[in-house]
Amino acid sequence: MRSVGHNLLVPEYKQQISELAELMEEFRLGEAQLQTSELRIAFKRRSAARTVVTESSSIEEVSASSSEEIADDVPEVVAPKGTPITSPMNGIFYGSPSPASPPFVKEGETVQAGQVVGLIEAMKVFNEIPCTVSGTVLKLVAETGAVVQPGDVLLYVG
Predict the structure, then answer these.
(1) Distance CA 117, CA 135 (A)
(2) Which of 6, 25, 97, 144 is most open to solvent, judged by the fewest CB atoms within 10 Å of its CB?
(3) E-assigned strands of the chain?
(4) pLDDT, tens digit, for every residue of 44-63?
(5) pLDDT over 70 for what percent of the chain?
(6) 49: burial class by Cβ within 10 Å (0-12, 13-18, 19+)?
(7) Exposed/middle/buried for 15, CB within 10 Å: 0-12, 13-18, 19+?
């Protein structure tokens, strides 16, 4: 059984560790792991990135070096104040009636309850999405052409 020292990674596993770190970054995963019969490699995002390498029953934590460090660069998202206007169905969101037309609403505009704020295309049918409250558009969240699910926030009105 090979021992993995504090700052020494067994060269044959270095590529697997790098590939796992790259996949984690590419897919913005909070944690990821690779396990074989003799090796378990796991990453978990924290304020200080750490790599946990385990071989069979021995467990060693290895601090990530600057070249292998996974940046904790996911910005903290603060939801805007206001009422979220959400998608009632699955489909493709459109912020204007056609590509050449102006958008239904813009940030900073006043909207009335019942006013159309977008379209969702589902099964080749365009469904109007009405605003449920009156107020000012605080933040447009959904982008034209984005696939939305029921409950996804399209915009905030305050």
Answers:
(1) 12
(2) 6
(3) 31-35, 39-44, 50-55, 58-63, 83-86, 91-94, 110-111, 116-122, 125-130, 135-140, 147-148, 153-157
(4) 766 444 445 544 444 444 44
(5) 64
(6) middle
(7) exposed
The helix/strand/coil state of 25 is: helix
On the question of pLDDT at 89 being above 60, the answer is: yes
In three-state secondary structure terms, 93 is: strand
> Which pLDDT value is given to residue 137?
96
- Per-residue pLDDT, averaged over 77-96, amounts to 88
As given in the structure block, the two tokens for residue 29 are 């995963």
Structure-token match 């600057």, residue found: 66
Please tell me whether residue 86 adopts helix, strand or coil conformation: strand
CA torsion through residues 23, 16, 68, 56, sign: positive
Closest CA to 97 of 77, 76, 82, 119: 119
Structure tokens at 48: 């200080």
Question: For residue 71, what are the contacts with CB-CB under 8 A and spacing of at least 6?
Answer: 25, 49
* 6 three-class SS: coil
Q: What is the pTM of this model?
A: 0.52
Sheet of 91-94: strand order equals: 125-130, 116-122, 91-94, 147-148
Quick one: tokens of 51? 């790599």
